[in-house]
Design a protein that fits this description.
The protein is of the alpha/beta class and 260 residues long. The chain has a domain of 180 residues: Rossmann fold, CATH 3.40.50. It is built from 9 helices and 5 strands. It has a 5-stranded parallel sheet, sandwiched between helices. Helix 3 links the parallel strand 2 and strand 3. The longest helix has 25 residues. The model has no long low-confidence stretch (mean pLDDT 96).
Length: 260
């Protein structure tokens, strides 16, 4: 199972790459869409967020009830942080649901990642790109549930920090963005994981600064850190220019297959 990133879906390039790998190796493959990311607006007065381990847990338990074989879970970016938060909260009981997890290019320190994407070139390009889809979804949610948040404040938001302060944090039980980023980050709790877990981050990821990445002292014996110098954010291209995206699933799934 693959959990996608912020505003991602089963059509994202990394989801297609993992699907290609699964097809070629005889694995079943599923990509659940977070609320509002399937092309259809969910009905509840909530959306999804980087620390949504309860949602991850429900989805994994549902899959476990439908499938008797081995299950592995991969989370990309936002989905990876949420997946790690689930493994941390589940502790030893996680082994009853999945055999191994992997987080790819995940902002395990949400504050550091949030400030990185809200600064300089990232703010001018990627923040605008994300808000271009996130704001209309939030406004559609407001139409469903009038009074849910302040419309004018949301329209004025220019950073993900501001958007999270108005929409994401209060809708999901957090005091504000700082509280959300603090409680939602996987990094402080990595030592609590009790199933094999791969945490993969390129050190040149523009959204996840190298200085905030976990070190060996931050994790327990179940966590493998892989921090190559290059790869960007969910990139890791292989082959000659312009390259291909098959290297990522080959390496990640190669590691996962060894854990069973």
């Amino acid at each position: 199972m693959l959990f996608h990133g912020l505003e991602g879906s089963s059509a994202s390039h990394y989801a297609q790459a993992f699907a290609h790998w699964a097809r070629g190796h005889g694995w079943r493959f599923a990509v659940p869409h977070f609320r509002g990311c399937s092309g259809e607006l969910n009905r509840a007065p909530r959306a999804y967020h980087s620390g949504d381990f309860e949602e991850i847990g429900w989805i994994l338990r549902h899959l476990r009830s439908q499938h008797r074989g081995r299950i592995a879970a991969v989370g990309v970016s936002l989905g990876g942080n949420a997946l790690l938060r689930w493994a941390e909260e589940a502790g030893e009981s996680a082994a009853h649901t999945v055999g191994a997890v992997a987080a790819v290019s995940s902002p395990v320190d949400l504050a550091a990642g949030g400030h990185a994407i809200g600064s300089g070139f990232n703010r001018q390009v990627y923040t605008r790109m994300f808000l271009r889809t996130m704001k209309p979804k939030a406004l559609a949610k407001l139409a469903q549930h009038p009074g849910l948040f302040d419309r004018d404040r949301l329209l004025a938001a220019r950073t993900l920090y501001e958007f999270d302060n108005i929409f994401t944090a209060p809708l999901h039980g957090f005091r504000d963005t700082d509280d959300y980023w603090s409680r939602g980050s996987a990094k402080p709790h990595l030592h609590r994981i009790r199933i094999p877990a791969l945490v993969l981050n390129a050190r040149n990821d523009p959204f996840v600064p190298a200085h905030c990445l976990p070190r060996q002292r931050d994790v327990g014996p179940f966590v493998t850190l892989w921090q190559p110098p290059h790869g960007g954010h969910v990139g890791f291209p292989g082959g000659r220019w312009p390259g291909h995206v098959n290297t990522l699933p080959e390496r990640v799934m190669g590691w996962i297959a060894k854990q069973f």
